[in-house]
Amino acid sequence: MHGLKQPCYLALVLLTAIQKGYSRPRIGSWLPWRKKSRSNDRPSSLPLDENKLTLLLDVDNTLYDESACEIESQIIRGIHDYCRDHLNMTPVQAQELHVKHGSTIQGLMNTRQVNKKLVQQFYKEVYQNVSVDSLLQTKGSALGTGYSHSSGNAENELVRDLLRSLAPDASLQIASNSPKYHVEKVIQALGLTRVPFTKIMTPDRRPNLFPTKAKPTVFFDKLLQQHHSRERLHLLDDSVANLASAKDYMNIYQVHGTGDSLLVALCRTLGYVPTNYTFDQVDYLRAKNHVDLTSLNRGTYQRMVREIVAASSSSDRVVIADLGAGLLSMLQLLLNGHGDDLPSLLGALPSNSTTIHYYAYEPNRALEQPCMSILQDMGFVWSDTINDDEHVYVRPSNGNLPRVIVHLRCWDFQQDAKRSKQPTPALVVGCCFADLIDPEQLTRSLLRQFSSRGDGTEHMLVYLPITFQGTTQFLPSKPFQVEHSTAKPVPSDTCAFACYAKALESRHAHHLDPSRLIDAMANHGGTLLQKGASDWIIDPFQNANLWNAMMYFFGTVACPELSCARWNAQAWIDRARIHQPAIYVSNVDLLFTLPPIGSWNFAATQQSTQMTSFSPTYSQLEFIAPNTVRVVDRKAPGLAPNQVRIKTIYSLISSGTELKVFTGNFDEAALDVNIKGMDTERMAYPLTYGYCLVGTVVECGSAVQDDISLVGKLVFAFAPHASQVVAERDAIQVVPHGIDPGDAIFMPSVETALSLVHDANPRVGERVIVFGQGLIGLLVTAILARSFPITACISSAALGALTTVDTLPARLAASAMMGAHEVLQPENVLRAQQFDVAIEISGNGKALQSAIDSTRNGGKIVIGSWYGNADVALKLGLDFHRSKKTLTVSQVSRFAICI
């Protein structure tokens, strides 16, 4: 442990706070600081830190979006009614006062003799009947293209939590031209009553003057006297006139209208997003499409093209539905191809008599005109527009190329009211789309919208490329960092991106586990044909537009979440901007078949699961020399009384031990002293090897007592790679019901990982580092993360951090998915804080040296690697001699005495 204070600090962090119950006051009855003071301001004796950030927040059309709530429109109607009834003014004249003077009441005070009574009457009549009920509605919006991260209540909740997290580092103040009682109604309706506002500034707080923001030296007089510099003052307002009046005294940010959302504006004031960067969705999609082309999994795409060609061989049309068309990138790829490894679908179709019907769904109307321009550039000719939201374009057949008809549909494909007659698509495609919809909802929507046609289509192909898996990393990634100038530590990049994924899932309804989609498809009769990695690697210079857009996403999604967890979010994002790392994003391409409703067949399913009899011969892998293997066919042996025959489903390759057997990097010894049947065989060429096999029992010996129930069961065996094996009955393990054979083969690997964790025996709160994130390393990480689930969103760089090290980005991404708080490449290990426990499982002698060097005095190094017959050179000088570090060798199948 790091000192006497550490256990106390650990206990404080782990303590679960008991939330108090609060009564629910009716809207309009909430008053800030009711128990402390009835004044608008907190006690004036509170000292003001001039270096503290001060955020001044307008209320109407700033704390909420008027376009969705229509509260400010009620105020405007009230103003127009008042001016008509009492001042004989037209709405145009009243609006002119607002534009010229920043507010209508300020215009009246500037141009007419207006007394105190009239002003009070103005505020009463205009605001007394304004309803804020629309702020209490539950809102949300569908995400159609994958970059609209915030919507509806999600953004409101994030703004609330972000504002609360800023205290005590910032002073939050309300600055509104509306009266105080209206401001309080809005704050309560928005759920902001626990935001620690230090002041509410409204015109009626000074009833002799009724100042508005149009005269900032009067409205903000005390604040401006206390702040001698505008650097730490920030005004967020929707009014161009109010911002123009205040620009000489403070930093200004326009919210809504032509400006940012409140969340983005806050992120700009906090330094999470550069003030000079403006996100452009068209530029983003163009940049993304370019990286998509380099990232698409070639094997999965080529399989999709082959399947489409085979399914269309006897048809004169191919129907394709694009669920989130964006800028029609998938249409362009399917028609034009991209190099030799991403072939054109047009060129693969057998005849120019085929017609392709392409239905492109894109609900974002801002992309409508860009899409129409792209179609024209591709040689399409406009044919028809239906109901103002469906555009039909045609490209005639040309030589051997088929005719193509595109229906650009400006709505979400799930909208029942928009369903038009169309046949079941042969192909449904959704690029960067599947993680935006609940997997079960997506599967049901596909069946509901596209398959209930009765047109005899046997199955749909569903191609979902660039499906985000939830893991993002900087390359190289940086460790935790403790700044002496602030109480908030800087998170590791891994920790920060764990918060990013958490925000996407919990606040923005993203779905980042593709296995749930695979299960949902299977539950409705679908089959996964192929999947493959399609990871992005975004270079800050070659892919500058996309890199900047991703940094914008991190600033508006990850940074607020980090701030809420009490991390130094600004220092984290600033560090990334300075070092400009590449961005790694873990994606997967998925290809399914999905039978339309009425096409799924129970008998066919049963037939596919029927067991077949075993063959009288079998194939086996044999190692015959360094770097040389062969497959040999052998006659199946008979069974002894206590033996069983197993037909293999999966046999796992051990990428560590078996690689050394393959390369010849081993000393002659017993194959495995702990596994029956291998303890008497020598590790010498030629040999068969492998010890992770899962299959189905197809035959039992005469003395096997449970033979009737055992035949057909899924079992595990320590057996070499072969299409069938014979094993003793007591040497096999029946796989429990519900465990997939593809998971069951990892049983010995999990056993090895668990043994390493037992030997390491870390205590809660200790910092642990794991070198090597191959199969065993990842499983060690998973066990440690689940044994000590200190969340990555607890802002402590020294509390129970789990760090992993590898050279490969894909392994580091997988390590983050397993729960590591900090993933590093080897060159950054010594920049991290020292560790209490190190586990070396990379198989590389240099990693053992790093493990020794990065472990604190008195710490423990557990060696799980087998280095073969290679010599390992270590530097064990005076520092090591004095360090009292412990080196322990771990071996599976044996428990340490202390355990």
As residue ranges, the low-confidence spans are: 1-6, 9-25, 31-46, 140-146, 606-612, 792-798
User: Into which percentage range does the β-strand content fall?
Assistant: 15-25%
Count of separate DSSP helical elements: 31
Main beta-sheet strand count, sense and barrel state: 10 strands, mixed
Structural class: alpha/beta
Please name the defining characteristics of this protein.
about 900 residues; alpha/beta; 10-stranded mixed β-sheet; 6-stranded parallel β-sheet; 31 helices; about 35% helix; about 20% strand; disordered N terminus
Give the topology, please:
Blueprint: H1 5-14, E1 53-57, H2 66-69, H3 72-87, H4 91-101, H5 104-111, H6 116-127, H7 152-166, E2 170-175, H8 180-189, E3 197-201, H9 216-219, H10 221-226, E4 233-237, H11 240-246, E5 251-254, H12 262-269, H13 281-295, H14 298-311, E6 317-322, H15 329-336, H16 345-348, E7 355-361, H17 368-377, E8 381-386, E9 390-395, E10 403-409, E11 427-429, H18 439-450, E12 460-475, H19 493-506, H20 514-523, E13 527-533, E14 536-538, H21 544-564, H22 569-579, E15 582-594, H23 602-609, E16 617-625, E17 628-635, E18 643-651, H24 657-663, E19 693-700, H25 707-710, E20 714-717, E21 724-728, E22 732-734, H26 741-744, H27 747-760, E23 768-771, H28 775-787, E24 802-805, H29 809-818, E25 822-824, E26 835-840, H30 845-854, E27 855-863, H31 878-883, E28 886-889
